[in-house]
Specification:
10 helices; elongated; six-stranded mixed sheet; 2 domains; 27 strands; about 475 residues; alpha+beta; Aminopeptidase; about 25% strand; about 30% helix; Alpha-Beta Plaits
Length: about 475
């Protein structure tokens, strides 16, 4: 049977190249490719570190026999030309969220432990990106062996700005035609056919709320809006320290001799709040309970309205504490995360907002509610561009091809589903998110999730994903994508 012969060849290929796969993942993980717009320059629009990872990704692609191209530093692609210019594409990204704190292994290296890879990006998304290149490399070798081109051109897109604005793929689609079908290995199996809408925003106090006599001198927590912070810190003045000490610190808060109050929770991705514990909320609730904040007059500017605002934003993950609870049958419940708190140089404070929303509420309704909420706390709200909910019909032949291949490997009959996370898929007319994380695999407690400390993924899961990708691409090549 041809399919069985193909799968046997793919098994042998993955065994042969696996150590090279891990080595290439490590070469990317060692690059701290966080967006840095302040250091951006022509050819490096997302900053030098992000560009370094893009360049390394294209270098790997070229070494594997693909025709690699740097698109002015915005994004890259690597092709295996086919008999037709019509493209089947993968898209993964080489940028990362900041490493943050709480790691027990080096964040910027790959640690192998008991069959797992640990390090920032091994799961999101440097590891899967390398899988996409090796999936293409399998076909490079087959084309060379047979002398017959693939029916369609196979393109591996190298994203470089996914974790922030996804402006890389927007730039790409302004300059290049969209592929006939595309999947991104930047999510979960079995297959994601829809994504909630996404709205980001920023709430900032209208006036400075920090003064020389303020019990709360600084509030700084979080790394990026789309991550629930596992650590939050506040700097207390003498009065604030006294009030905190009098109240008594719970086990998950610490106050050092310099007045730095640290709260520890459980971090994670903003779209998946179920197993997290919001550190900013924990910190702010303690400050309010202890009265360790300015109330006006001799206590410095009144900080209570802002702290109560933050407390409401972090009290629940479904927006119910601020009147935004909403759900529908396809996407489920809305989620809201206030992920980054900052004290500005002029004494104002700010908090970021990340909302993942279903079709039962509109972006205009979200903005109106959040603006009213901010005004009640003497704050302003600045909304970013909303990304509307995205959905692909799971009965499409290309979707069924991928889903069927995964189920075949797993011996299951699982169906496509929708998520609150945002992937590149929502930018393309025909696309989906397809693995490599497998929720059916129970990881040890010491394996962290994406965007969190000790981010990790099973090597066996990645090996199987590579096989699934290769066989899926082979089957996609047999479809009529005209």
């Amino acid at each position: 049977m041809v399919d069985e012969q193909l799968k046997a060849q793919v098994d042998a290929y993955v065994d042969e190249v696996w150590e090279d796969v891990v080595s290439d993942i490590r070469s990317l993980v060692r690059i701290e490719s966080v967006e840095d717009l302040e250091a951006a320059e022509p050819g490096k629009p997302w900053g030098p570190a992000s560009y370094e990872a893009l360049a390394k990704g294209l270098e790997i692609a070229a070494r594997l026999g693909l025709d690699a191209h740097d698109c002015e530093g915005y994004i890259g692609y690597a092709d295996l030309p086919g008999a037709s210019d019509t493209q089947i594409a993968t898209i993964a990204h080489t940028d990362i969220v900041p490493c943050g704190t709480g790691w027990t292994v080096p964040a910027l290296d790959v640690t192998r432990r008991d069959g797992y890879l640990l390090g920032r990006g091994v799961l999101d998304d440097k590891g899967p990106f390398v899988l996409s290149l090796y999936a293409a490399h399998y076909f490079v070798r087959e084309v060379r062996r047979s002398g017959q081109p693939l029916p369609y051109t196979l393109r591996c897109l190298v994203g470089n700005d996914e974790e922030t604005s996804m402006a890389d793929v927007e730039w790409y689609l302004e300059h290049f035609e969209a592929p006939a079908f595309c999947f991104t290995p930047d999510a979960d199996f079995p297959l994601i056919c829809g994504e909630k809408g996404i709205l980001h925003g920023l709430m900032t106090t209208n006036h400075p709320i920090v003064g020389a006599a303020s019990p709360l001198a600084r509030l700084d927590a979080g790394t990026v809006p789309n991550a629930i912070p596992g650590v939050a810190t506040a700097t207390l003045g003498p009065v604030g320290c006294e009030l905190a000490a009098q109240t008594g610190l719970p086990d998950d808060l610490r106050l050092d001799e310099d007045g730095l109050l640290t709260a520890r929770g459980i971090g994670g991705h903003a779209a998946f709040p179920e197993s997290t514990d919001h550190a900013i909320g924990k910190l702010v609730r303690f400050l309010l309970a202890a009265g360790a904040y300015g109330t006006g007059g001799d206590q410095g500017p009144d900080q209570a309205p802002f702290l109560h605002l933050v407390e409401r934003l972090t009290r629940t993950s479904d927006g119910s504490a601020v009147g935004l609870a909403s759900s529908d049958e396809v996407f489920g419940a809305l989620t809201l995360n206030a992920g980054v708190a900052r004290t500005l140089d002029d004494g104002r404070m700010s908090i970021t907002i990340d909302v993942r929303y279903p079709t039962s509420i509109t972006s205009d309704e979200l903005v109106a509610t959040l603006q009213a909420l901010a005004e009640q706390a003497d704050c302003s709200f600045e909304a970013g561009n909303a990304k509307e909910p995205f959905y692909m019909d799971p009965s499409l032949p290309a979707i069924q091809t991928l889903l069927g291949t995964y189920n075949e490997y797993m011996g299951t009959d699982k169906e496509a589903f929708v998520i609150g996370g945002g992937t590149y898929a929502r930018h393309f007319p025909r696309a989906c998110a397809f693995g490599p994380h497998d929720p059916s695999v129970v990881d040890p407690d010491w394996v962290g999730i994406e965007h969190g400390p000790d981010e990790g993924v099973s090597e066996e899961v990645l090996r199987r994903a590579l096989k699934v990708y290769i066989v899926s691409i082979a089957r996609l090549m047999e479809l009529d994508l005209g």
